[in-house]
Amino acid sequence: MFQKFARLFFFVLTVCMASGFSVRAQVTGDTLKITIQQAQDLFVKNNLQLIIQRYNIDNASAAIVTARLFPNPDFSFTNGIHTNDATQGPAYKDQSFNVSQLFTTAGKRNKSIQLAKIGVEQSKYQFFDLLRTLKFTLRSDFYTIYFQEQSAKVYTQEINSLSKTLSVFKEQYTKGNIAQKEVLRIQSQLYSLQAEYNNLQTGIDTVQSELKLLIKVSPAVTIEPIVNYDLDGKNIVESVPYQRLLDSAYSNRYDLRLAKTSLDYNNVNLQLQKATAVPDFSLSLNYDKYGGYGTNFLGAGIEFNLPFFNRNQGGIKQARIAIDQSKVQLQSQQNQVESDVATNYKGALRLEKLYNSFDPQFKADFNHLIQEVFKNYEKRNISMLEFLDFYDSFKTNTLQLNTLQFNRITSLEQLNYVTGTAFFNQ
Question: Helix, strand, coil % (nearest 5) of the chain?
Fold first, then answer.
């Protein structure tokens, strides 16, 4: 009864941690069965790095509010306390007031507002570029786990088969029907497979840990990806023109947009630095009850500095250097985008042609063959070396096929990543 309650409690806890599980992912025991779309939904809602970056957008938006504010007026009050000049009368009753207001010139306030607005755009572009990067990591981890689990099944199948064979051989060896070298050979192969399987599981656990952090689920949960792999015989990369991919990258790569806004920011900053060379001025109004010109003196004034020496020469020079630097950075980013798209497009085409050249029936035929090999070996129709050679060939080919499938789907994810567009989502 307690175990049932514990399972129910764990299920509810997992659901709460995943924000209600509106994606309807299936949790069975400690296993979370989930599709790629469900994983993405959890990621967008729960990922802590994205939440942190969203705060940066709010922080940048607050800078606009600050830039729009006018300077506060200054107020001063003086009250007389004591004087040694008896002719001045009751000096302690002397009171004076002063109010002054600073006015900025040359459009400094508007330029500061423009800089703050560009800062908000930059924060948004940083957020969406982080989203693009983490989403690519999420999808890569998801498919890595899936295809490595498929490879793990091959090891499990071979290990189980060899374990049964080893038990039979040990029994036959005790009866004197087979030589010890055959037992040792099977045992050696089994230990080798178990070591490889352990290394594979260690890699799966590492990727599992990263994926669970991305979608924020309990470390105790094991993620089981649900994949509908439907790429056999399809020329989906070839069907999309290269120029369309490149144009999409120019439009949708937020790191490229960020480089462009950096240039815009520095252009506006140069205008602001030039405006800083123009002095601001303060207007003041003062009142003195017993002023030197008579009682109830009221006066007005203006104050500004004379730009004889400091005309912000250094700030203007730095702003111009920043513009030149931003232009080079933008060109470098454009070159990087073009290189990314070209390289990944060629690689995806090669993998597509290679995979489509394989006979779809090959895997099924090979699985059937290895079953017949095992039966023939039990009947002693083939030697132990032939048997182990067939088994090793089966493992190698199956792992290579899984790797090829993984590489192909990863190449599509790479194209999505470098173009900033979900052209080939599965």
Answer: 70, 10, 20
